[in-house]
Amino acid sequence: MRTTSAGVFKIATTGPGDVSGLMALIGSGAIDPKSILAILGKTEGNGGVNDFTREYAVAALCAALAPRLGLSPEEVEQRIAFVMSGGTEGVLSPHLTVFTRSEAERPAGLSGKRLSIGMAHTRDFLPEELGRSAQITETAKAVKAAMADAGISDPADIHFVQIKCPLLTSDRVEAASARGNKTATTSAYASMAYSRGASALGVAVALGEIAPDVRDEDVLRRYDLFSKVASTSSGIELMHNVVIVLGNSAASVSEFEIGHAVMRDAIDSAAVIAALESVGLGFAPQATNGRGLVNIFAKAEASPDGSVRGFRHTMLEDTDISSTRHARAAVGGLIAGLAGTGAVYVSGGAEHQGPAGGGPVATIARLSD
Amino acid sequence: MRTTSAGVFKIATTGPGDVSGLMALIGSGAIDPKSILAILGKTEGNGGVNDFTREYAVAALCAALAPRLGLSPEEVEQRIAFVMSGGTEGVLSPHLTVFTRSEAERPAGLSGKRLSIGMAHTRDFLPEELGRSAQITETAKAVKAAMADAGISDPADIHFVQIKCPLLTSDRVEAASARGNKTATTSAYASMAYSRGASALGVAVALGEIAPDVRDEDVLRRYDLFSKVASTSSGIELMHNVVIVLGNSAASVSEFEIGHAVMRDAIDSAAVIAALESVGLGFAPQATNGRGLVNIFAKAEASPDGSVRGFRHTMLEDTDISSTRHARAAVGGLIAGLAGTGAVYVSGGAEHQGPAGGGPVATIARLSD
Amino acid sequence: MRTTSAGVFKIATTGPGDVSGLMALIGSGAIDPKSILAILGKTEGNGGVNDFTREYAVAALCAALAPRLGLSPEEVEQRIAFVMSGGTEGVLSPHLTVFTRSEAERPAGLSGKRLSIGMAHTRDFLPEELGRSAQITETAKAVKAAMADAGISDPADIHFVQIKCPLLTSDRVEAASARGNKTATTSAYASMAYSRGASALGVAVALGEIAPDVRDEDVLRRYDLFSKVASTSSGIELMHNVVIVLGNSAASVSEFEIGHAVMRDAIDSAAVIAALESVGLGFAPQATNGRGLVNIFAKAEASPDGSVRGFRHTMLEDTDISSTRHARAAVGGLIAGLAGTGAVYVSGGAEHQGPAGGGPVATIARLSD
Amino acid sequence: MRTTSAGVFKIATTGPGDVSGLMALIGSGAIDPKSILAILGKTEGNGGVNDFTREYAVAALCAALAPRLGLSPEEVEQRIAFVMSGGTEGVLSPHLTVFTRSEAERPAGLSGKRLSIGMAHTRDFLPEELGRSAQITETAKAVKAAMADAGISDPADIHFVQIKCPLLTSDRVEAASARGNKTATTSAYASMAYSRGASALGVAVALGEIAPDVRDEDVLRRYDLFSKVASTSSGIELMHNVVIVLGNSAASVSEFEIGHAVMRDAIDSAAVIAALESVGLGFAPQATNGRGLVNIFAKAEASPDGSVRGFRHTMLEDTDISSTRHARAAVGGLIAGLAGTGAVYVSGGAEHQGPAGGGPVATIARLSD
């Protein structure tokens, strides 16, 4: 019986322009470039507006993959979903995670649900729709489409939903204005949070985590509304949302399994351990026989109320280091300590992604055989 | 029978100049100001050369304690050992730890070793002695004197040795030069590392952790030579070393106990858990019945070889955030996650304090009763 | 005939806690501590929310002046207007400018207008009044009162108006809310800009630079409304505005004169030279015979439209260095180059203080005799 | 008569990957891509070890120019000298300066010396030669060869010598060590200063600014030895020095002229004005009839003695902002103010390039006709 298989490859990089690890895996036949669906990366910039390591990494990957795919670099950027998260503070280590999907023959006797990946796009948004219910509703639709693409029908089987979403620029704000419409904000920086937040709420709606009647004014305000599996990231290069769902499916013959938990705050070690245990791993997974840790995906943020479990933090008042850099360093230190490696994907900006001050944490393990 | 008792008080602060928490405990009678031996603090500066929160905190504490002790602020600074560690990156929370010592009556039936504190000073050093064998040898002597002061004879009962040590200024370098002598370095910044390193080696010699024949050229080079319990910090205001030993003694009737472990690298969660277990606590100590966590004291640094367990870190090459800030954020995140609180003492600059890239981690628990 | 004299003393400091220069001038009799009206300082912090060098400097000055004035440190802080501007980026050099006022006998034959200083306070504001017309109107009244105090009636004789104004805290926002009122913003950081902006507009109204009918919604929006001489700075320690006017008066027998110009952008060297020339100095004032430069006072900001004379700047998009630090460094470099010294007062946050991207620049010269 | 012509084009960029301005000039025929000799750029990174905007800019330029030159991107990087200087602090504006050289017919009646450009390479260095007399001597030879290439024989006609030089990596240090040789330093970061310093001393030797007998131990120590026209910049991608000399030659029919002066410290406005005047421009060159400013090239650094004209600066002790960023912001502010534009080339790291704390400043003007 023909079915699908999802692959996951973690590749350390020596800099944002380093594509040698991926090219070596392609050269050896371990990765078929045509099977690449998405690449998530941690790059060593500051993760802020002026972090050029993200676009540099994407440019380098597109240039390197273009001849292998018989496409132009621009076409590669359209075909593969690139999500680069800047900021490897503390012990975090720059790396790429390459997701592949291919048809496969189901071996006899294989049982259990296994990693499956699906993708979908929304339509292009108008600038005035970003950060508002239109973006929420359309994202919810796309999440359902991506679930279908992944062959997953039960929301409980979805463990991580990575979304790339647009942001506002002054041109886009003016275009809305010329139509007589106001955008959610006029600031490019603030629009990133709005877009991330609405996209995360769209995931929550699609998975039934919250009721579908989210209002425009709830975005970036009602932080009790959130998804436990959404991870969203905004970029200037698109006007629609790209949705990647990662879950487990009985139809998949992948060698991998995914699970998740929710950090209720930035020091929630129990949640990190629960995420490891959800895929049969434990604390210090290196020691685990058989199953092996591939990667952990988490979102981090400085809790907006200025404290963690009753003790004041100083991340939001530091004029020298942005709070997103602080949060990645701290949460990255905790996850790395529990996972036994700094090559984990910890990303900042967790609006409506987990509770305020916390965030989702997903784990992918390679199954024993 | 008369004996001694050591007290430990952790006090959250609202800023480097905030003395209200300490004054309230003095006002309520919980702390007798005359019993205060040392105050260790985490302040919210950058921990670097231009971190003025440390001297501001000391100035505020001296001004506030002066009338309670019938001394001038300058005399308070001489009487009490103030060790302020700047930098509360990530989830770390600004606070003070106040150590007291007083005579007490031994209750009948009390058994076991309990927290005991001892202090001692070296003689003043010549600038050319800093970072060299003279500083090592004199520090070792002072550690032994402080052990005697604490009533501890077995090095195995020593779990944390906090040292304040001098640094070089251009005036001090010139004074040495005028005598025809060269200092270990002419840079004030570099001299801090030399002084911290030699002081830590002095602890290692005193406790028999390394052989006493350390040579000048081993300082900041032979990182295989280190102490598992030394925590050293250099300051401009003194020319001698102040040594505070924290250990357990059968002579103490303190309500507290101390233990330690050694982090072999910045993600060594097992060591943090071992340090918690060494005083009868466990992972998530808040849940522990009876015994309670008071504080954790740890040193952190970016591993000099640029990697942690085989994965590259980017702390040493970041021009925007100093590696000490990165390291405190990451190690602070891990320890806070395992301890369940960000109000822990994580300090940077761990030369010869634990192995390269790692550092000592000590825990004080309040005993159940 | 009895009249008044205003004195100005520029004192280099070795750190935010350094009061030795001021104490030496008091010890030598050059400064009578009772004559001190205001102290403006540049301290070496980051100038942001977590810049503790400002309060440290004020605490050190109050503690040092208290015994000389027979007051408690708290009373000193009430008596003297302390305005500390954090941030000595680039070539800017930490220093204090001490303003004194005393009665004097008018020498025969003295002519011309000379430096005169006046002070006044507004009433305490309600939190909901900050950043709005109430603050504008009350500030305008206080500016007129301070002009009268300085013996100056012609607005053309006013060259610098330094204002200290309140900010919002969460407690203050809640107090307004409990009264059923909304504040201009709920963010402490944003409230600083609102309070600075409204205070500057109050100066503009008082001096007839703009019409008095400024509306609440003009604050931080209508940047075409501004004062050419206002310099405002918000602090948490007060709920009213303190207004210090610096101008020239025929009644003054001061040895000093003040003038000003307006920088239309951050590279407006012509304005800096005009400010120097307005008090009889020129480019490279050190070379000027007779008259000597005392200090320059300027406000700097990154132009909100992202460019300077048609060329893009990157200050507003830098996640690692705040735009206020960039702006002080650049404008400080220009003014220092033209003034021949880095010991100048360049402060950030110039809302409604000069045109957008520019700011006022005032110069005080010592007269030849 | 056939002779050469040198062209200079300043092109604003919207980001480090923006090549559109250059492509447009090529598309319009204004620039013949085959005539491009060198591209100097200011990119908006931090200018430090982890500034990836420099290599990103070079990668983008090489990819864009490759099809125009019929070469691979790697061959473009070999053919054209790319010198990217990271850091557009303060008002500095990201831009490229493209230098071209082509054969031309000398018009009758043309007189005077005009801009001429020459290039030369040294042989590859051994790692142990970097920062030492071998690098000095070979660089001096290459400077003379580049002068010949430019058709300039009189050192007084040389106004700017831009050098790209190697740095040490751990591999290179080990290679030296395997040969039994020690390198000048084992730190990659420190090696950049050594290589820049030795290269600048090579220029000084070639131009007769200093005696040729410079010893290894003079590098980074004898700061009284310096070149008034050297600007050096180290990069990981080469093991030899690339030398670009810019001067004036009677053989050139260029529309441009170059001149220079030397800033004796970071606030030396007189030197900047002298550099403008050396090419017939003045203060506020925009207003100058006929001649027009093309660009200014300067090196900046924090004065190593910690003060500027007797006043303390705080650049060297700031743990949050590197001194090179401070220095570029301040000197950039001054030069932009005097030049009337932030699109100037101000670069950090001025070892032996101008006096300690100062640096060379060169100006290129377009001639009137």
From TrEMBL, chains A, B, C, D:
Residues noted as binding Mg(2+) in the record, renumbered to the chain: 301, 350, 353-355, 358
GO molecular function list: cyanuric acid amidohydrolase activity; metal ion binding
Active-site residues, record numbering mapped to chain: 164, 233
Catalytic activity: cyanurate + H2O = 1-carboxybiuret + H(+)
Keywords: Hydrolase, Magnesium, Metal-binding
Originating organism: Bradyrhizobium forestalis
Binding residues annotated for substrate, in chain numbering: 54, 85-86, 196, 233-234, 328, 347-348
Protein name in the entry: Cyanuric acid amidohydrolase
Region annotated RU C, chain positions: 256-369
Pfam family, one: Amido_AtzD_TrzD
GO biological process, one term: atrazine catabolic process
Function recorded in the entry: Responsible for the hydrolysis of cyanuric acid, an intermediate formed during catabolism of s-triazine based compounds in herbicides such as atrazine and polymers such as melamine. Catalyzes the hydrolytic opening of the s-triazine ring of cyanuric acid (2,4,6-trihydroxy-s-triazine) to yield carbon dioxide and carboxybiuret, which spontaneously decarboxylates to biuret.
Family indicated by similarity: Belongs to the cyclic amide hydrolase (CyAH) family.
